[in-house]
Design a protein that fits this description.
single chain, four-stranded parallel beta sheet, 6 helices, 4 strands, globular, disordered N terminus
């Protein structure tokens, strides 16, 4: 176990835990970016409009794994969701996340 794993936990294990509980994969890139490639079954809600979709996301009653191009926007999205009482984790870039799923 590396230093970062001991400080922050193993992200891959957290992702697997979320997956086992039927997590929603939420891609927060723009529609144009999403249309160029995405994780099968993911939902696209761009970061710019995520605040207006909080109630819809809450109604799903699922944990959420956020992703984007590099992990920056998905980090912001996960923070927004957590602040609204939604269980969320930043999955990072969609391409690397797809390899962990």
């Amino acid at each position: 176990m590396g230093l970062l794993d001991s400080l922050f936990g193993n992200k891959k294990d957290k992702i697997k835990d979320f997956q086992s509980r039927g997590a929603l994969i939420l891609d927060v890139r723009t529609k144009g970016e999403y249309d160029q490639g995405s994780i099968t079954g993911s939902k696209n809600i761009p970061l710019q409009v995520i605040n207006s979709k909080i109630n819809d996301i809450k109604k799903l009653n699922k944990p959420v794994i956020t992703c984007c191009a590099s992990g920056m926007r998905s980090s912001s999205a996960a923070s927004i969701l957590k602040a609204q009482g939604i269980e969320a984790i930043n999955g990072g870039g969609w391409s690397s996340l797809s390899k962990k799923l």
